[in-house]
# Entry
Amino acid sequence: MRVLFAILVSGVLILSIGYAAAQHHMQQDHMDHGTSATDTREFVHLPPQLVEHTIANMRDHLFALQQINEALARGEPEMAGKIAEEQLGMSSLRQHGAAEVAKYMPQGMQDAGTAMHKAASRFAIEAQNVGVTGELKPALGALGEVMAACVSCHAGYRLK
Ligand code: HEC
# Structure
């Protein structure tokens, strides 16, 4: 009887350890966007003034997302599209001095930047379409793709 009890207890123990390990694993999967304990992002060396310039640009990017979201909430999709195109889209490249920074970036990072600019321009088109179709979902989906481009570059690269 006592032996049986011991076997039962150790069985429960093994199960719960397994469960805890699985949970830990799941949490890591969720947080694997550059925030896990081991930083696997590639360091990209830019001249110091370009680091500051790029990081300041990033804050503008986030500000643009806020403005886009607010314009959508006000029922002004055309305005949202205009902000996206001017601040994040293909039209924003020169304003951001992209060419100067791009030559220091590894190819993968350049591609991530291009993906973001293209996604923003696609969103701008979808946002214009809302005015015609009244259908917001495609625009929201396209905005999600813009954010996915932010997330994927952040997961791969760091400047500091
Ligand atoms: C081509 C790559 C790339 C893309 C695309 C990108 N970022 Fe970044 N971003 C970076 C890097 C690299 C850093 C610096 C991270 C570090 O060194 O820790 C950064 C930093 C930031 C920061 C922190 C700024 C600070 O003051 O420290 C914000 C906010 C940010 N990005 C927002 C965005 C948003 C919003 C988007 C999308 C609309 C975006 N980024 C797209 C590469 C990118």
The pocket of heme C is lined by residues 55, 58-59, 61-62, 65, 88, 109, 112-113, 116, 146, 149-150, 153-154, 157-160 (CB under 6 Å).
